[in-house]
From TrEMBL:
Organism expressing this protein natively: Peteryoungia desertarenae
GO terms assigned for molecular function: glutamate racemase activity
Pathway: Cell wall biogenesis; peptidoglycan biosynthesis
Protein's gene: murI
SUPFAM superfamilies (alphabetical): Aspartate/glutamate racemase
Described purpose of this protein according to its UniProt entry: Provides the (R)-glutamate required for cell wall biosynthesis.
Family annotation (NCBIfam families): glut_race
Protein name, entry field: Glutamate racemase
Residues binding substrate: 16-17, 48-49, 81-82, 196-197
Amino acid sequence: METQRRHELKPILVFDSGIGGLTVLREARLIMPERSFIYVADDAGFPYGGWAEAPLKDRILSLFAELLVRYEPEAVIVACNTAFTLAGADLRAAFPHMHFVGTVPAIKPAAERTRSGMVSVLATPGTVKRAYTRDLIQSFASQCHVRLVGSENLARMAEAYIRGENLDDAAVLAEIEPCFVEQEGRRTDIIVLACTHYPFLANVFRRLAPWPVDWLDPAEAIARQARRIVPLVENEDWAHGHDFAVFTSKRPGFSTIRLLQGAGLRLETMAS
Ligand code: DGL
C-alpha cells in the first residue's frame, strides 16, 4: 500500500452546536497529530438542547448534506450528545460512505466505575429525553440508580464563561445540585458530563459540588474511537497550521474568535 502524503490526507470534521466540541477537538489533535481538522459550529441553531426532535433532525441532516460535499472529510466526529443521540443513526443511513464517530452519554463507563451504584447524567434537556439515552441505561446500567438531569441553562453558561463573563455561583449550583443524590446511606459518586460544553465548567463544578465526585468527561475516549477509524499515517509533519473553523451564523463574537485563534483555528465563512 502506498503511503498517503500529508497534502493528500483528508481532514477530520468535528461538529457541535457551539464551542463545546472544542473539548473533543483538543483530545483528537493529540491522538491524531498528522491530521488536519475542520471545526464546524452550528451556532445559528444554538442551543440544540431545547429543540423539538423532528425539526432538529432535519436541520442536522441538511447541514451535513452540504458540509460533506463542501469539505470531503475523511471522517466526522459528532462532538455533540444532543445531535448524535437524535440523528446519529440517520446520518449513517443517509451518508453510508462516511465514517461518523459519535458522542453519547458515558453511561457504560460510569456504571463500571461507580462504587456506590449511584450515577448521575448531566446533559441538555434534549439528550435526557432521547430514547437512545434510556436504552443506554437499560443496556449498561440497570443495576445502578441513574439520575438524569437535563439542564436548560448550562450550555449557555459555558459559552458565557468562555467569553469571560462572570457566572453566579448560586445559578450554577442550582443546575448541578439535582445530580447529588443521597439515599439509604449511599451517595452519588460519579457524574457523567453528557454535553460537550460542560467540561469547560468542570473546575466550577468541582468547587461548588456538595461533596466530591468523579466528573466523567468522554472527550479522550471519543478521540481514541476516532483514531481507531482513521488510519495512522507515519512520517508526517504536524498538520494543524491548516485547521479552520466554520460558524453557521457567519458572525461569531469577538471573544469566540479569540478563543478560536487560541486554539489555532482560522475562521472561514461558508460561502452561500
Ligand atoms: N454541546 C452539545 C452536547 O454535547 C449541546 C449544547 C446545546 O444545547 O446546543 O449536547
